[in-house]
Write a structure and sequence with these properties.
191 residues, mainly alpha, Rna Polymerase Sigma Factor, Chain: A, Arc Repressor Mutant, subunit A, 2 domains, 8 helices, 82% helix
Length: 191
Amino acid sequence: MYTASDYDDKKLLLQIAEGREKAFVVFFKKWQPFLASHIFRITESRELTEEIVQDVFLKIWITRETLTEVKNIRAYLITVSRNHAINELRRMAREWGKIQPLADSGLPDIHADTAAKASDLKYAFLDEAIDQLPPRQKEIYLLNRHERLSYKEIAGKLGLGRDSVKRNLQLATQTITRIIKAKLALLILML
């Protein structure tokens, strides 16, 4: 059984498939916030999310004749946007893989300066990510990574259980990794 919303979406898809731009504008306004929210959870970068949303809607317009076959618009949008976001992140990772050896190679002269700047940037990203952690996670992360204290030593020092220390350190590491990946993705886009 279809709801009024389903009917409206199916009607919009048929109109878009016929090339009606006004229907596409209505469709875009209706689904853009949902799509942006979904993609942001994958990329965690506002700039990258905006670019991917535009690309997905452009792809929808270009392949509009196939929209008549879509049964579940929500599932279709999730699949198309997720695939596009993952492909974009993979592409950026490949690009970073091409850039990173230059930064790590210790090339002389001009390239040495570039490598130093890349290394400085990496540490700047790390420092910024650490600063964004919640206070307890930040404290535990710094005790573990900078002071090289064990879970047990941190637990004793902070009056926490070992499992609590372990979990907070895991969460901190995940957050830092996510933030750095988003920053690197943005940097690659700017190159």
